[in-house]
Amino acid sequence: MLAIRLLAEPERLDTLVLPVRPGPGDDDPARPAPAGATLPDGVAEEAAALAPAARLTGRPGEVQAQLRPGRDPGRLLLLGVGDGDEAGWRTAGAALARAAKDETHVTLAMPTEATSAAVRGLVEGLLLASYRFRMTDAGTAPALAGVDIVVTDPDAHAAAVEVARTTARMTRFARDLTNTPSSVKNPEWFADQVAALAADVPDLHLRVRGPDELAAEGFGGILAVGGGSASGPRLVELDWRPADARTHVVLVGKGITFDTGGISIKPVASMKLMRKDMAGAAAVVAATLGAAALRLPVRVTTLAPLAENMLSGSAFRPGDIVRHYGGTTSETTNSDAEGRLVLADALAYAVAELEPDLLVDLATLTGANAVALGKRTGALYSENEGLAADVLAAISAAGEAAWRMPLPADYAEHLGSELADLHSSPDRGAGSVMAALYLREFTGGLRDRWLHVDMSAPSWADGDDAELTRGATGWGVRSLLRWLGSLG
Q1: Peptide bond between residue 73 and the one before it cis (omega within 30 degrees of 0)
Q2: Does pTM surpass 0.70?
Q3: Do 302 and 241 touch, CB atoms closer than 8 A?
Q4: Backbone φ, ψ for residue 14 (5° rounding)
Q5: What single-letter DSSP state applies at residue 111?
Q6: Catalytic residue among 98, 266, 376, 447
Q7: Is the dihedral of CA 290, 293, 294, 299 positive or negative?
Q8: Dihedrals φ, ψ of 139, to 5°?
Q9: Active-site residue flag, 449
Q10: Catalytic residue, candidates 90, 165, 340, 478
Q11: 254 is catalytic
């Protein structure tokens, strides 16, 4: 990641960045914000003249470059930050990471009244937009290696930078997990990546169940979905257990490391990006590691049921009856509706054994998510008004997006089966809603403290956009850390 420093005065001025805000009126020109640092003679006046001449609006992410050969600084960047809130600074940081990718180092002079929230947004934008994932050394990597942020009181913003750095590092880890091709990424590999980061972290405990343990304990959904693959399934249980925790949250994330659709095989166009079908597991694991790194005073137990849904002679069949953890049975007539089967096991286990105060799951569960809400917004379900409001507020503050969806009582009748307790893949009702209603059946006494997010659509970006880069977005890590931080 970029090396980011907080300074009281600039040490290098080869490239200087000055924030620009909109004018006070709609027709007033944008203007540079007064910097708290001492600038070289004439730079502030030059920036003030350049902003209206370049017709800058001051909107977040707007960038204007000015070359100054033979002078110090040699390059001046005017950076739009909008009204100066955290979201505007996050967008500005992302734009700066791209505009300065050919520089080796830049110095940004923050306004005198800059808040810690603004600094956090800036750092998150810089670190997230500069992310790259490649499986080869070929190609040109961004040259930008360091950013100095000049503020009036560096000590006052040090904690905000640390939170932003940890949040970005864990989001980048989730992106790495999700972007990794499934020729490398199977359930065992995923569990090994978690183990490597969790090793020797105080108060962080890891258990990984393999196929034999899953069979002995009755995790029939995970075993059914993973049964068609030569790479056996796993259940990762990662427990952050600080001594001062007053609340216990269980996070569950869908971890299908590749999804062919099984016997109900997907067409090629729908299968080529199915390495992303474990993005929910990546998000909850990364958020838990982030909670441990930040020493958040909340207990977090994460369950990541991991399986590869493959087509073979041992794959489960449409029409099979699956017996889940705890004994509930599901009739499944579509092996491409596999994610809910592994989540059902994990939810049932959490309710029976872990006794959490709150239960939250994230999953790339349905294509219907994108049909209903587009590419950037997750579908959120909960019967708990307070929990839904708190999580939605955290999602918004983190710069992500979700929309609360209904859980209609009359749709629940479609889950009836003549052969089993439930039908996991009925062909009636709205797809994302039906999946949520099915999962609700496994929440037991925690039904009124459960929240589900179908985040299939926002887990992947088709191109660079603000702090997102093409490929996996790491959706949910920022939101979960923001929400978990509010529970302490």
Answers
A1: yes
A2: yes
A3: no
A4: -70, -40
A5: B
A6: 266
A7: positive
A8: 100, 170
A9: no
A10: 340
A11: no
